[in-house]
Amino acid sequence: MPLTREQMAERVARELQDGYYVNLGIGIPTLVANYIPDDIEVMLHSENGLLGMGPFPTEDQVDPDMVNAGKQTVTATTGASIFSSADAFAMIRGGHVDFTVLGAFEVDTQGNIASWMIPGKLVKGMGGAMDLVAGADNIIVIMTHADKHGNSKLLGECTLPLTGAGCISKVLTDLAYMEIADGAFILKETAPGVSIEDVQEKTAGKLIVPNDVVEMVFD
Amino acid sequence: MSGFNKVVDSFEAALEGVEDGMTLVSGGFGLCGIPQDLINEIARRGTKNLTVVSNNCGVDEWGLGVLLVNKQVAKAISSYVGENKEFERQYLEGELELTLTPQGTLAEKLRAGGAGIPAFYTATGYGTVVAEGKDVRAFNGKKYILEESITGDFALVHAKIADHYGNCIYNATAQNFNPCAAMAGKITVVEAEEIVAPGELDPSQIHTPGIYVQRVVQSKAEKRIEFRTITEV
Prior knowledge:
The structure holds two protein chains of two kinds. By secondary structure, chain A is α/β, with parallel strands linked by helices. Chain A has five helices and 14 strands. Chain A is 16% helix and 25% strand. In chain A, the strands form two sheets. In chain A, strands 1, 2, 3, 4, 5, 8, 10, 11, 12, 13 and 14 form an eleven-stranded mixed sheet that branches. In chain A, a hairpin with a 4-residue loop joins strand 6 and strand 7. By secondary structure, chain B is an alpha/beta fold. Chain B has a single domain, classed as Glutaconate Coenzyme A-transferase (3-Layer(aba) Sandwich). In chain B, the strands form two sheets. In chain B, strands 1, 2, 3, 4, 8, 9, 10 and 11 form an eight-stranded mixed sheet that branches. Classes of the chains: A alpha/beta, B alpha/beta. At the A-B interface, helix 3 and helix 4 of A face helix 4, helix 5 and helix 6 of B.
């Protein structure tokens, strides 16, 4: 079975380490916050200018001056700090954020990512996505393996306008976890019950299947 | 205090000198920390053909959306223009010129502009449409593009507290682009929720030093929330 959105978030959360500063993109990446292990401490970075993002406020705590990068009302955790947007991106661009999770439309075997624009459809802007992919070293892209029409989103070369070039090396989809190196996707893990052939069939870009591919385990 | 008393008693006086065709830099992120009273005053004045530099352009009827509805904006430099139907319509029909700029690059363009740095190299946007026509250079084996800084004829800023000297303190994430905008204005106008006498602010807690600020005015507009998300108790 392909992973659910929740299982994708749970799998990515296993990459978190105690003491990590983490930026989670909008969509499935946001769900990763629900699976942070109890025995580690991580601090969430929100690129409008908040480090130490907490849960949504209660009705009594709502403050129009306190929002996240998705413009949703949020709270700050113990140890949080608030700063200008220039500082928020100095943290990203300067490589101070340990781990970044974001969504994408396409990823290719050169580590290119397209996530912000579909020509002919409405252009809303890249927001902070280009800064995040260019600045972070440790990025996981989390997305479905194929689009609604069954077309692979893992390509030899992205067809959509790029968000960043040569900056992605880890991808988790609903079918598999892969790394990108030497112009190919390297299969590392498959979703429970998903065969290597299923992954091969839905991966348009070059896929290398080593001998040590493991199946993910969920409780 | 004479020369250092920057408080003016009306929005009209706060924006004296704004003319057609000028570039306005605005603080705010979405509807958070936006200088709504100053935007309303620009709307009242009917100034036309403006270039606005702001991360977003508000929503229809609030934030910079007010100026879009009034057709006062000729060009926008922003990172994200969703949540704004009138913006989309004017852009798609060619009434409005839009330069999409990555969010961190935009913040740095303003900060650098205010700091007297005319351009800087950043990896953001390398290999994308953002890099088209821009100088590319490698440092330590990584590619960077040259981005030019931005300054504005006026900068519009919203602060929680300001004193007569123009020293500003922002509240929570309403800080966002405001300190960057404050640095980038030839004339920086701060609307503050509270204006206090000199000496009342702790110098070590100031976010924007008054040297960047030319005028201070008392704000009055309500604060709106774009997406009200709640944890049920």
